[in-house]
Amino acid sequence: MRVVAAGALIAEAWPALGRGVPAEEFLAIPGIGVAVLLLAGLWTPIAGTVVALIGVIRVATHAGDPWASILLSTLGAALALLGPGAWSIDARLFGWKRIDVREPKDSGASPE
Q1: How many domains does the chain have?
Q2: For residue range 16-75, what is the model confidence (pLDDT) as tens digits?
Q3: What's the pTM?
């Protein structure tokens, strides 16, 4: 998911650098920086939040395709909530957290 979001960011930001539209260039530079962070898996929750914000700003300013921006902001929010994953720099630095849901222990009361 990180690779797809980073690829979409780069695909939208790279052509915007040469168009000369200030609103698109303003979002293109942080978009490429965040895409690099996502590819590396570094600061994934923060980068995902920035991706979501870039998507919302692109929808609000009518820069580019609104449906692609909505999809990109949804991917960013999902990345911010899900975290980096096992193959990332974040997992190596901070450890990958796994949550096991277990059955509740019997309280000892009889079901009479």
Answers
A1: 1
A2: 777 777 767 777 888 889 999 988 888 888 999 999 998 898 889 877 788 988 998 999
A3: 0.73
pLDDT at 34: 92
pLDDT in the model for residue 97: 65
Any domain includes 112:
no
Residue 27 lies in a domain: yes
Q: CB of 53 within 8 A of CB of 16?
A: no
Please name which of 25, 70, 23 lies closest in space to residue 51, comparing C-alpha atoms.
Answer: 70
Measured distance CA(104)–CA(10) in Å, rounded? 46
Domain-embedded: residue 80: yes
Comparing CA positions, the residue from 77, 108, 92 lying closest to residue 40 is 92
Range of the domain at 67: 2-92
Q: At what angle do helices 22-40 and 2-16 cross, to 10 degrees?
A: 150
* In contact, 50 and 30? CB cutoff 8 Å: yes
98 assigned to some structural domain: no
